[in-house]
Amino acid sequence: MTPTDLAALIRAAATDVLNGRGLGADALPVEIDAEIDIIRPRNPAHGDYATSIALRTATRVGVPPRELAGWLADDLGARAAIATAEVAGPGFVNLRLVSAARGALVGEVLAAGASYGADPTAVAALTDRLAALDMSATLVDAIGVDAARYALIRSSADTAPAFDVALLASPTSDNPAYHVRYTHARLSALARHAADLGMPAGSRYELLEQPAEDELVRALGGYPFAVRVAAQRGQPHRVPRHLETVATACERVEADCRVLPMGDEPITELYRARLALALAARQVLANGLALLGVSAPERM
Q1: What is residue 87's three-state secondary structure?
Q2: How many beta carbons lie within 10 A of that of residue 195, not counting itself?
Q3: Is the separation of the CB atoms in 183 and 250 below 8 Å?
Q4: Tens digit of pLDDT for each residue in 27-67?
Q5: What is the CA radius of gyration of the chain?
């Protein structure tokens, strides 16, 4: 389930709640946006997503926000894709998806391919903004065009930043550009190894239940949001920084959840599901790097 799908579900639930209580669904914000009204809580213990739609609607219908949030949570909690729905704060609703709905995002990324997260309006706005980048020839000569471009976009400074050239030239995970591009190359190598084993990606996404797997799925689901907010707020640095979140989550999966079988170990559905997750992560990194105008190497 993508954030867009979840937003449609939340709107449908809110419509049912308001109409069922004779309040009228026309009170719902007409400008509600799937990626803006739905956020990822910083603390995973608070759920997979949170929505503020009750807060934004309550005053229009004359109901306390937490009361409206409670009605909405009761309705959403009874829907098949939602594991739990809880009221939080002044009127937020925290949502946790069932494992099958959460993991299904992997298949949606793979099906969308290069178009995942590529909202036309956001992409056009970011492309126009990035076209105006003025890269220092000295920096390009020192670290290469890809690293220089990545570093410049990643900087949120309003004035010309002072770069640590030694760091940006180093092949370590402390170098953000190297970290993201190397993770893409490592995932590409994993895909080649899987092909050598005759191991196709699977679709039993409900098997992806480990915390590290969930963290990576969350990061993949947040990519379209990062792109749209970057465009809407004129903050392109949000895209590379989100790619770094994806790359770090990939490392945790690699450390905690073996993707490929070893020796004579059978190829199980869990391994195939993890391969699909790895391929989805590679796709998101490729999409983000392409948006930034930075190459996504297959080998490094």
Answers
A1: strand
A2: 10
A3: yes
A4: 887 655 544 578 878 777 888 889 999 998 999 899 999 99
A5: 21
